[in-house]
UniProtKB/TrEMBL annotation, chain A:
GO terms for biological process: ATP synthesis coupled electron transport. Residues 17-112 form the Cytochrome oxidase subunit II transmembrane region profile domain. Residues 113-248 form the Cytochrome oxidase subunit II copper A binding domain. Its EC number is 7.1.1.9. It comes from Craterilacuibacter sinensis. Subunits I and II form the functional core of the enzyme complex. Electrons originating in cytochrome c are transferred via heme a and Cu(A) to the binuclear center formed by heme a3 and Cu(B). GO terms for cellular component: cell outer membrane; plasma membrane. This is Cytochrome c oxidase subunit 2. The chain crosses the membrane at residues 44-63, 84-102. Residues 1-20 form the signal peptide. Keywords: Copper, Electron transport, Heme, Iron, Membrane, Metal-binding, Oxidoreductase, Respiratory chain, Signal, Translocase, Transmembrane, Transmembrane helix, Transport. The gene is coxB. Residues 268-349 form the Cytochrome c domain. InterPro entries: CcO_II, CcO_II-like_C, Copper_CuA, Cupredoxin, Cyt_c-like_dom, Cyt_c-like_dom_sf, Cyt_c_oxidase_su2, Cyt_c_oxidase_su2_TM_dom. It catalyses: 4 Fe(II)-[cytochrome c] + O2 + 8 H(+)(in) = 4 Fe(III)-[cytochrome c] + 2 H2O + 4 H(+)(out).
TrEMBL record, chain B:
Its EC number is 7.1.1.9. PROSITE patterns: COX1, COX1_CUB. The gene is ctaD. Pathway: Energy metabolism; oxidative phosphorylation. InterPro entries: Cyt_c_oxase-like_su1_dom, Cyt_c_oxase-like_su1_sf, Cyt_C_Oxase_1, Cyt_c_Oxase_su1_BS, Cyt_c_oxase_su1_dom, Cyt_c_oxidase_su1_bac. CDD domains: Cyt_c_Oxidase_I. SUPFAM superfamilies: Cytochrome c oxidase subunit I-like. One of its GO terms (molecular function) is heme binding. Cytochrome c oxidase is the component of the respiratory chain that catalyzes the reduction of oxygen to water. Subunits 1-3 form the functional core of the enzyme complex. CO I is the catalytic subunit of the enzyme. Electrons originating in cytochrome c are transferred via the copper A center of subunit 2 and heme A of subunit 1 to the bimetallic center formed by heme A3 and copper B. Residues 24-527 form the Cytochrome oxidase subunit I profile domain. It comes from the Bacteria. It comes from Craterilacuibacter sinensis. The chain crosses the membrane at residues 36-57, 77-98, 119-142, 162-186, 198-225, 245-269, 281-303, 315-339, 351-377, 389-411, 423-444, 464-484. This is Cytochrome c oxidase subunit 1.
UniProtKB/TrEMBL annotation, chain C:
It is found in: Cell inner membrane. This is Cytochrome c oxidase assembly protein CtaG. SUPFAM superfamilies: Ctag/Cox11. Keywords: Copper, Membrane, Signal-anchor, Transmembrane, Transmembrane helix. GO terms for cellular component: plasma membrane.
Length: 370, 543, 175
């Protein structure tokens, strides 16, 4: 087992990309990130200089002023002048540091004059992006398979998502951040943006990407079990490409409103439902439907997933009244997706009820309204 | 005066050492209680260390090898809580218990029975923390900071943790009251405040910090508890609460807490360096003022832990400037220690090695702190491994190295035996090398963008994580050298002279080795120089 | 011995009084909240005197948004995403709320401002956030929000975002 794993690691390391940029901040692509980068470099030089000076004095003393070198100790223990000097000098250095730091902070905080606004909502454990000006909204999930094999779905391990946040270059993008459950933090190092998303509150931040590219980050605030598995991918495209993407996205959104009266077969529902389950439910209820004992209830063999069908639909649609961790999925998923995932849950892992829940059942359960 | 009289009467009645279990269970002697504290904190250090190795084992390579993410989060949470409240704080209280009365000429701690209680609260609290791993839902997993509303989600383990924090808090507050009263009321004649050892000053100021902030922590975790079970909405926006308020209250405790773990270390180093440089501490008065100003400033900087919560620019600027200001008194301390070494006649026994290691690594940790204090840069580094590296430089190389220094320094006085110098030096060099191999690469990980508290990571972080994991295991094994050295030396060590260190000149070295069970039953008349240097001692009586 | 007994009695009496006081706090808090209105989450502001009679103030950019917290099966959206207005004039924006579930749900909206410092300058005259709103299954309603941005608004706050967060009112779900 171990040699296999080592072999895997070695093979993973072999591309040169992996070793690049491991020592310093990621190459900045926004003015804010650049100011952070430069500020950090400046601070690094100053602190290294301080370390060199203080340590050389100390090591000089350690080497020369030792008993074994035949020294006897001088008994001085005060020198007001020296003490005033070494209080004043650090103070001046700090004032020198504070000036550029203040400039950088004021720039970071200036969210005005945006070209577009995207609302970012943190969920356990995924991100939702709402393009407020264009009415496009989607969830962004990790796509790396979670079976511990270090395989990816075609992107960097753990830093790949199904739907990246696509933004135009050269435009000031304002983010409005909030969260649905606990505090998350939206962080993309290359953009120089890290902002907590706080449930029940709204915060904002901004960035303006200079050059097209894909920039990756992660949730930075511990948000529970899968905190390490909710990456952020920002795909910056030229304004023209962005407009194309946006148009395609709007068409796709219209198409997504599938015919709610279509009757699906059980295998169709199962296939679709498994996909929905793996995107939304697997984090808590686990791939085998067994849940996490004591924290997240099992679905395999559970009463609600084998007998109480209306209760099951209600639970998925409206969430649990007893356990806040079970969200109301009616807001996030379409009728078809909910019908599919319920059918999947009622027929997977030995829950062979044979129930095929149809989108129109869900529509009825919603009370005829979306 | 009443207190001192009372203690004297008690000690006259009880001449003999009690034997067996009762000696420890009903201990009222400051030396016995100090010993209990030190062994307890060592046990906690080992438990917290095992958790750390669990974390590092998982992070040795990408992928999930050993733990599921929820258990990983429990390990990081409990590692932090156990190390902070179980290992470092009790160790400093234990040292203060053992050495303070000896250093200021007091017969015992002021409240001997409360002292017993403040120790014996610790084991049940530790037990609550440990058994929480086995309750349904597992231990608390919201990080040692227990941020709401994540901490309002957890299982029963979170409740156990909250109760444990309550108990640990009560214990710390009682210990702190004892230290304050002892230092202020029980100093021997001649041992004035501006002459007493820096260690006494540091313990006194730390004790004030503890009394000021532990109730804040107890309050905020109680609010989490009532949010969890009694329908309050302190941190739930749906009921008019504010999750960020948790962070404000927590860090109002949390930042002074950092200095609760650092100031006693400053005190220890300020005793050890003069002894082995054979020279008085440079700038004693400025040291006292620097320590006090650090303590005061520590109440004004809490929100620098929260720069990413989206504070207004003015608040960020205020907390940035205040935080940078702390670098000034801290710098003064480092310069004073270097000036104490300057033109001295240094020897490098184990305590001195650890003290020098402390000054070096604490300086590095302090300077990475200055970088973090700059809010603009902190936006990029908050919640990354850079922060992990920073606070381990301050707490492992800072607090822990100073504790090792102290234990080696006072070991002869406590036990009457000499530790093995060879093993001590091996322990130092081993710890120094592997500490840096473990924690230095974490700076790079943080800069490159690795968040903290994640059980699995992107492949570009593999190399440094592997190095850090190897370093952590080697560092961990190195602590067995320390354990072996202590146990073997207590049993078979060479008898120690009354003053094993040529340059030692504070009060504890003016009495017999090992320290008599009841020391300074009658207070001596002292003539004292700066930093507790004893110029002349008359009288004093021991049993 | 007698002293001890008297002391014990006194201590017991004090303990009883403390307990009684704590018990009496429950109705006392209720009365205090009713009299002072502390418990009302959002209150209506008084209309500023002579709102539109004098010359219009400086232009302000307004952005509107709304969020719904977990557990509340509502959809809330402003009908206008952003607009330009002037300080001192009445602004009206409509919000549409839909209860997307098949049960009666009670919600409470709380206004949030970005930047937060702009909050005190927004005087709300009419708002669905003044009280809890009950929705029948599937019901959709529109609410006007009417407010005035104070003329005292500092220049650096001249772009402001009003984002409601709508919460489930605990214990009022059924019925």
């Amino acid at each position: 087992m171990l040699p296999l794993r080592l072999a895997l690691i070695v093979s993973a390391l072999s591309p040169g990309v992996v070793l690049a940029a491991e020592l310093n901040l990621q190459p900045p692509v926004t003015s804010v990130a650049r100011s952070i980068y430069d500020l950090h470099t400046l601070l690094l030089y100053i602190t290294v200089a301080i370390v060199v000076i203080v340590f050389s004095v100390m090591f000089y003393a350690i080497i020369r002023h030792r008993k074994s070198a035949g020294r006897s100790a001088k008994q001085f223990h005060e020198n007001t002048t020296v003490e005033i000097i070494w209080t004043a000098i650090p103070l001046l250095i700090l004032v020198g540091m504070a000036w550029p730091a203040t400039q950088a902070i004021l720039a970071q905080k200036s969210t005005r004059g945006e070209d577009m606004t995207v609302k970012v909502t943190g969920y356990q454990w995924k991100w939702q992006y709402d393009y407020l000006d264009d009415g496009v909204a989607f969830m962004s999930h990790l796509t790396t398979p979670r079976d511990g094999t270090l395989k990816t779905a075609g992107g960097p391990y753990l830093l790949e998502v199904d739907e990246p946040l696509v933004v135009p270059t050269g435009k000031k993008v304002r983010l409005l951040l909030t969260a649905n459950d606990v505090i998350h933090s939206w962080w993309v190092p290359a953009l120089g943006v890290k902002q907590d998303a706080i449930p029940g509150y709204v915060r904002d931040t901004w960035f303006k990407v200079d050059k097209p590219g894909v920039y990756r980050g992660q949730c930075a605030e511990l948000c529970g079990k899968d905190h390490g598995f909710m990456p952020i991918v920002v795909d910056a495209r030229s304004p023209e490409d962005y407009q194309q993407w946006l148009a395609a996205k709007k068409v796709a959104a219209a198409a997504k409103a599938e015919d709610p009266n279509k009757v699906w077969t059980l295998p169709e529902l199962m296939a679709r439902g498994e996909k929905v389950y793996l995107q939304n439910c697997v984090a808590c209820h686990m791939a085998n439907g067994a849940g996490v004992p004591g924290t997240f209830p099992a679905l395999a063999g559970s009463k609600i997933a084998t007998t109480d069908k209306p209760g099951h639909i209600d639970m998925v649609l409206n969430g649990s009244k007893k356990n806040a961790a079970m969200a109301a999925w009616g807001k996030q998923l379409s009728d078809t997706e909910i019908a599919a995932v319920i059918s999947y849950e009622r027929n997977a892992w030995g829950n062979n009820t044979g129930d095929a829940v149809q989108p129109k059942d869900i529509k009825a359960a919603r009370g005829g309204k979306v | 005066m009443n207190i001192a009289d009372g203690t004297q009467v008690a000690s006259h009645i009880q001449h003999d050492k009690p034997r067996g279990l009762a000696r420890w269970l009903f201990a009222t002697n400051h030396k016995d209680i100090g010993t209990l504290y030190l062994w307890f904190s060592f046990a906690m250090f080992i438990s917290g260390g095992v958790m750390a190795l669990g974390i590092r084992a998982e992070l040795f390579s990408p992928g999930l090898q050993f733990w599921q993410p929820e258990l990983f989060n429990q390990l990081t949470t409990l590692h932090g809580l156990v190390m902070v409240f179980g290992a470092i704080m009790p160790a400093f209280t234990g040292l203060a218990n053992w050495m303070l009365p000896l250093m200021i000429g007091a017969p015992d701690m002021a409240f001997a029975r409360m002292n017993n209680w403040s120790f014996w609260l610790l084991p049940p609290a530790a037990l609550l923390l440990m058994i929480s791993f086995w309750v349904p839902g597992g231990a608390a997993a919201a990080g040692w900071t227990l941020y709401a509303p994540l901490s309002t989600q957890g299982g029963m383990g979170t409740d156990l943790t909250i109760f444990a924090i309550h108990i640990l808090g009560v214990s710390s507050i009682m210990g702190a009251i004892n230290i304050v009263v002892t230092v202020l009321n029980l100093r021997a004649p001649g041992m004035t405040l501006m002459k007493m050892p820096m260690f006494a000053w540091a313990s006194l100021i730390t004790a004030y910090l503890i009394i000021a902030v532990m109730p804040v922590l107890a309050g905020v975790v109680t609010m989490v508890l009532t949010d969890r079970h009694f329908g309050t909405h302190f941190f739930n926006a749906a009921g008019g609460g504010d999750p960020v308020m948790y962070q404000h209250i927590f860090w109002f405790f949390g930042h002074p807490e950092v200095y609760i773990m650092a100031l006693p270390a400053f005190g220890i180093v300020s005793q050890v360096i003069p002894t082995f440089a054979r020279k008085p501490l440079f700038g004693y008065t400025s040291m006292v003022y620097a320590t006090s100003s650090i303590a005061i400033l520590s109440f004004m900087v809490w929100a620098h832990h929260m720069f990413t919560t989206g504070m207004p620019a003015t608040a960020q600027l205020f907390f940035m400037y205040a935080t940078m200001l702390i670098a000034v008194p801290t710098g003064v301390k480092v310069f004073n220690w270097v000036a104490t070494m300057w033109e001295g006649a240094m020897t490098f026994e184990t305590p001195m090695l650890f003290a020098i290691g402390f000054v070096m690594l604490f300086t590095i940790g302090g300077l990475s702190g200055v970088i973090l204090s700059v809010a603009a840069v902190d936006i990029q580094l908050q919640d990354t491994y850079y922060v992990v590296a920073h606070f381990h430089y301050v707490l492992v190389a800072g607090a822990l190295f100073s504790l090792f220094s102290a234990v080696y320094y006072w070991f002869p006085k406590m036990t009457g035996k000499m530790y093995s110098e060879k093993l001590g030096q091996l322990h130092f060099w081993w710890s120094l090398v592997w500490f840096n191999i473990t924690f230095f690469p974490m700076h790079f990980l943080g800069l490159a963008g690795m968040p903290r508290r994640i059980p699995d990571y992107a492949l570009q972080f593999t190399d440094f994580n592997a190095i850090a994991s190897v370093g952590a295991f080697m560092f961990g094994f190195g602590q067995l050298i320390f354990f072996y050295n202590m146990v073997r030396s207590i049993r078979h060590g060479q008898p120690a002279p009354q003053k094993p260190w040529e340059g030692a000149n504070t009060l504890e070295w003016a009495i017999a080795t090992p320290a008599p069970y009841h020391s300074f039953v009658v207070a001596p008349q002292l003539e004292v120089g700066d930093n507790g240097v004893i110029l002349e001692m008359k009288g004093g009586e021991h049993h | 011995m007698r002293d001890n007994r008297i002391l014990l009695k006194k201590l017991l009496l004090i303990a009883c009084l403390m307990f009684g006081f704590a018990w009496a706090l429950i109705p006392m808090y209720r009365v205090i909240c009713e009299v002072t209105g502390i418990n009302r989450v959002v209150k209506a502001d008084a209309a500023p005197a002579a709102g539109s009679s004098i010359a219009p103030g400086v232009p302000v950019k307004l952005v509107f948004d709304a969020n719904v917290q977990a557990g509340l099966p509502w959809q809330v959206k402003p009908l206008v995403r952003s607009m330009m207005a002037r300080t001192g004039e009445f602004v009206r924006v409509d919000y549409e709320i839909t209860n997307a579930s098949n049960r009666r749900v009670v919600g409470q909206a709380i206004p949030r401002y970005l930047p937060a410092a702009a909050g005190p300058y927004v005087h709300k005259l009419d708002c669905f956030c003044f009280k809890e709103q009950a929705f029948a299954p599937g019901e959709t309603r529109r609410f006007p929000v009417v407010f005035v941005v104070s003329r005292e608004l500092p220049a650096e706050l001249s772009e402001l975002t009003l984002a409601y967060t709508v919460f489930d009112v605990p214990g009022k779900v059924a019925s």
